[in-house]
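Final report, results section. Input specification for complex C-07:
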Amino acid sequence: MRIGVLEDATGVSRRLLRYYEEQGLLRPARLANGYRDYSEADVATVRRIRRLLAAGLPTAVINRILDCFHDGDGGTDTGNDDGDGLMTSSGCAGLTTRLRRERARIAEEIERLQASDQALESLLAMPARISRAPG
DNA sequence: CTTCTGACA
DNA sequence: TGTCAGCA
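Structure output:
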């Protein structure tokens, strides 16, 4: 399918679709006229990319993770669900472990930010008598 | 009309 | 990301 069809199927703009390709996330074939030729699998891939991006992962990381999704769509396409799950297959060992570590890292970061937030809150609760130096 | 690449806001 | 240009 051409880019316009994929756009309608995924809701992702052509601009973004081309950008994903530029980032190595998509590798559509080319028609004789130079038009990109996407496969049905690319529809699912784009959805996965959106999810991974929403998770805050950089395209470089998504690139690797994408290979860990070995289409497990055994269902009829009646459902519009993304139908994606992490498939532990070819050389994807340790992926979930790394992802869990990332979550732990984020959790720690949140704690630090909360500490800063509380410190700032108490600071603002103090009587505001810090005046400007007489000029 | 649809897509392509490159570039600018 | 949107959008415009200039082609094919």
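Confidence is low (pLDDT under 50) at residues 72-81 of chain A. The two ends of chain A are 70 Å apart (CA to CA). This concludes the modelling results for the funded period.
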